[in-house]
Amino acid sequence: MADFLSGFWSYYIAGITITGILGCAWVLWSNMTAKVKGPVETMGHTWDETLEEYNNPLPSWWVWLFVITIVFGFAYLYLYPGLGSNKGSLGWSSTGQYDAEVVKASQQFDPIFDRYAKLDLKEVAADQQAHQIGERLFLTYCSQCHGSDARGAKGFPNLTDKDWLGEGSAEYIEQTILNGRMAAMPSMAAVLGTADDVANMAQYVLSLSGSGHDSVKAALAKDKFVACAACHGPEGKGNPAIGAPNLTDKTWLYGGSAQTITETITLGRTNQMPSFRAFLGEAKIHLIAAYVWSLSNKPEAPAKTAMVQ
């Protein structure tokens, strides 16, 4: 990989670029200087019985368009980066343009974000303008995993219900977005014993939520659930303090079939919510957290604020 970072490739790319443009110029020049002697002959190509291709000189408009294109190419390479590592006389870069756009956007929108950052999350959730801003931010940065309707997908939780692995408070949601979360369900296959024991446990877990199950197999696994109670509790109602899910409801992150539950017990699960603190900043996350909280809670008194210009 280090070979691609050497200076050779810069010269290689620059050489190919210049050779390509000079090659086009040579083709143009050779066609302009070629003389047609005597009657114009055909190239031997005929279509639709009478449509023939003649060896006529290039039309002037085409020649000048070609010349302009070549001149433009050299002018562009002089002004902008295009010849390997050469930065061009203007010193333009996509990174510099992006940074300039970020500064411009910050000057326009930071006063809005800062104003809401000083308010309590529930106050922000009750504000109509803040709700709209939070929704746009969510659609831009969060919908890839949680969906545009925030109802999630396999492995990505639904944010519109009240089923939370943690507290579900507005502050908890904000801290989750700021710092991220790591969740792990260890493999329990070795603890439970045989493959039949794992299959029986899957049936017992299904019974906890009143889902369809094999009662005989569930009864065989009941005493072994003590191995799972350390996280999920003796009744299977979970432990929000450590993010262990409630097994007595019918909310499943990966699916509630016997096959999926067996897979989870056998292999375990690892899931991560990344931290967005460095990427978005605390002010934007404050708005997103308020929006996410409002999806499963009703703000008491929706307010309408004046738009900040």
Automatic annotation (TrEMBL):
Binding positions (heme c 2): 185, 228, 231-232
A GO biological-process term: oxidative phosphorylation
One Gene Ontology term of the molecular function aspect: heme binding
The organism's place on the tree of life at top rank: Bacteria
SUPFAM superfamilies given in the database record: Cytochrome c
The protein, known as: Cbb3-type cytochrome c oxidase subunit
Binding residue positions for heme c 1: 142, 145-146, 273
Principal cellular location given in the protein's record: membrane
Entry keywords, A to Z: Cell inner membrane, Cell membrane, Electron transport, Heme, Hydrogen ion transport, Ion transport, Iron, Membrane, Metal-binding, Oxidoreductase, Repeat, Respiratory chain, Transmembrane, Transmembrane helix, Transport
Subcellular location: Cell inner membrane
Cofactor entry: heme c
Pfam families to which the protein is assigned, alphabetical: Cytochrome_CBB3 (PF13442), FixP_N (PF14715)
Ranges of residues in domain Cytochrome c: 129-209, 216-296
Membrane spanning residue stretches: 9-29, 61-80
Pathways involved: Energy metabolism; oxidative phosphorylation
InterPro entries: CcoP_N (IPR032858), CcoP_N_sf (IPR038414), Cyt_c-like_dom (IPR009056), Cyt_c-like_dom_sf (IPR036909), Cyt_c_oxidase_cbb3_su3 (IPR004678), Cytochrome_c_Oxidase_Subunit (IPR050597)
PROSITE patterns xref list: CYTC
Organism name: Derxia gummosa DSM 723
Functional description taken from the UniProt entry: C-type cytochrome. Part of the cbb3-type cytochrome c oxidase complex.
Gene: ccoP
